[in-house]
Each structure stands twice: as C-alpha cells, then as structure tokens.
Amino acid sequence: MSDSLDSSPCSPKDTASLTEWLDYMQQIHVSAIDMGLSRVLPVAEALGVVQSAKDDAYVFTVAGTNGKGSTTAVIAQMCQAAGYKTALYQSPHLSAFNERVRINGEMVSDQTLIDAFGKVETARLKCGLTLSFFEMTTLAALLIFSEADCDVWVLEIGLGGRLDVVNIIDPDMAVITNIGIDHVDWLGDNVEDIGAEKAGILRDDISLIYGTAEMPNSVKQAIDKHQANCYQVEKDFSYRVIDATTWQYSNAAVSMQLPRPALSLINTANALSAVLASSLNIDTHAIEQALQSVKLAGRFDYRESHNRHWLFDVAHNEQGVEFLLTQLLPLWQQHLANQSTFDTSNQNDQASDAPATIKMLFSMLADKDIEKVVQRLTEAGLPISEWFIAEIDYPRAASTEHLQGVLLNYVDGAKIHSLDRLQQATDAVIATSQSQDLIVVCGSFHTIGEALVALDDNGLR
Predict the structure, then answer these.
(1) Are 319 and 313 in contact (CB under 8 A)?
(2) DSSP state letters, 66-108
(3) Cα 33 from chain centroid?
(4) Is-contact 350 391, C-beta < 8 A?
(5) N or C: which end of the chain has fewer CB atoms below 10 A?
(6) Which runs of E-coded beta strand occur in 236-347?
(7) pTM, full prediction
(8) Is residue 6 in some structural domain?
(9) pLDDT band at 102 (very low <50, low <70, confident <90, very high)
(10) 155 and 116 within one domain
(11) Are 298 and 313 in contact (CB under 8 A)?
C-alpha cells in the first residue's frame, strides 16, 4: 500500500468538533486495520510520547483474547486507590469515544481529545505519513497521558500485541489474560501463531502475568528469549470463592481474603498479581477499596431499566461466551430465587403468572464466528424463549438475514424476531417481555453500545 498523502482529505479546522475529527480520521488511511509499527513510530517519536512513558511513568500493558477490559479496569482502580495519578486506555468504546481515555477514572473532555488530535495530525503531516484511525487515536491518548504527567499508564492492546500501536510503549509489567482463536485474518488460526503475536509485548527482563493454566510453546519461547519472570495462574498464584461476598487470593508470599468485585475473579486475580509483582506501593486497604468500587460497562453488567432486568456482556467469540455462561447460569438461579422481591409496582406492567424466561437481544460482526457463538448459547440449557436480532450500525456488521440464517440451524423460527435496527429490536424486547424476565444483550461491543443508547441509559462512567 502507498503512504502518499496526495489524496488525503484536508485537516479539520480549528473549530472542528470531536465528531468531525473522528470522521476525518476514519478517512485518511486506506484500511481500517493496518498492522505494523513502521509508520507510527516516527510520529510517536516526534510527539515525545515514547520517551515520556519510559522516563516518567510505570506502564502496565495487557494483551489477550478476552478479559483485557476487566483486567485493565481493576489494575487502574487499584493504582488510583493507592494515590497514583492513573491513566487508563481501553478500546473499543460502547457509546462515547471518550470512554477510551480516562485519567483517575474520569473520561477526558472533548476539548482535550480535540487538542491532542490536532497535535498528532501536525506531527503526522511533518513526517509525511498516513495513519489508521486506531493509530491516530491511540497516539492522541498517549500524548494526553504524557502531558497530564500521569504516574501510571494502564494500556489495553487493541489487536494482537507485537504489531499493535500500543506496543510502541515499553511496559514495566505485561499481562496476557488468555489466548483463544479470534481475528484469524490478522493473527493466525491457531494458538501458537496467536500466542507469538500476543507475546510480542514482552521486553528483556520484564515480568509477565499469564492468566491461564495452559501455555502455547510460542509464549514459552518468548519468555525464554526475553528472560522474563513469568507468574502463571494455578502455578504461581491461585484464587477461590469463599462465599457470596468474599474470595481468597494466594501466591508464594501472601494469602488474602478480599471482597468480591463486580467483575470476573480470574481477571481480577490476574490484575492483582500484576499489581503485587510491580514496584508500586499498593497496600491491602487500597486493594480492598478498589475491589469494592471497580466496574466496567458491558462486562457481565447487570442493570434494571424500563422495569426490566438486563444483563449486558460483550461476549463475541466462543471463549467469551464460555465465560459469560459460567457466570450466567448461577445468576439465573439467583434471579429465579429473588423474583418475588422484584419491583413490579408499575400497574401498567404487572408481572404475569407465566414463568420467567430469558430473552436474547443479539447481533454480531460478520467477521466473527457467529455459528460457534450461537451454538454454544443454544446448547447451554438456558430457558431462552425468544431471540431479537437486528443489524448493528457498523461497516463490518452481520446482516439481519445472515444472523437469522445461522439461528435457524439451532432455534425454532417462531422464536426469532428479526428487526431492521437495534433500536427497534430493543423496543420489541421490552414490549414483549414481562418484568420477571431477564434480557441478555450480547454479541459485540457495538450491540451493547446501541442497546444502551436505545435505552437512553447513560450509566457508563
């Protein structure tokens, strides 16, 4: 591909809005995904973000197929609770782009992003290079963290590891949550190839937290090559549930009984291991405080809205669905047990005598393995009475017809409601469900984001 700027649109004016900047950055590069660091490094060096991170901040970099968002959220919350000025970079977002860039838990302002985009654009033009949307926006996030003089940077890898733009920053602590089959067009179709890409975040003599009990040889080889210190779950640290409110974390040095967070325990254990293995001063009080307050929209995210009970989860591949089901099955039993206490005070929508069921609000991207996701959801033994499907507003979205075609292999057609847009599907599931039902929304970040917008539910902070 060419890096020529000849056909690039003109840079936004000084008065441009955040939306205008985001639209512009979608247009200036020939492909949405363009793996590699050769174009982005000169711009990063011109901005000074690489040197700033090396000299002034402690950096956690988190890669993995699933669980990156929860892991980064827990690390950031623990560092913030300990008094460190903490930067958190995650992707993608659900409703507002600002969700991706946070300092001490707060999304940065539109103007902060606009100012950073302008500086990245100036540096890009001086270097005579084109950058993808993700490269431009990631550089802007790193520049914001540098200018804010943050003590700790917690960075989530967007895709893979080795060639992801986040990897221009040398981490002090690396985390690989897990390795599954996803993004096969970019990372490979087997765990060895994918593991090699994710292990690309390692540096010499670094510490690595590895969050599953089985490790591909490619990751072992990378650990040996870099002489990294690896702490692996079930080998170097472990965790177990004690009761509904307490869990236990143990490693060779400590054993701690801690409050259960709203996020998954495996991701929490990985995050805690990273914090404990770091050089930061984070005491038990800060850890406990963080676990009691941490949350992340769209990750096993239970809410009540419109006199309905909702569960939002971004599960979009087979491994993600397995994790969702591990948590959903016990939640469903608890939901049934607690039905009688649910608020049915709305006289226009009293609970019926019908048994509670699960309604699925579902959509996915076309380049995901929709067949495996649907198969696993339908074979889990859950009482899913109806499916509400629609195409999400995204270029890579699966069409409603394609979603329906896959579902018909596993679900009676009478249980499938096909709508044109997710707004309509959200309205339909509210209209046809009862207040004792549980509505599960999953399949993509974009599915969750559009559903939350449809509900006008702004509880994303």
Answers:
(1) no
(2) S-HHHHHHHHHHHHHHTT--EEEE--S-SS-GGGGEEETTEEP
(3) 17
(4) no
(5) N
(6) 237-241, 246-251, 255-259, 301-305, 308-312
(7) 0.84
(8) no
(9) very high
(10) yes
(11) yes
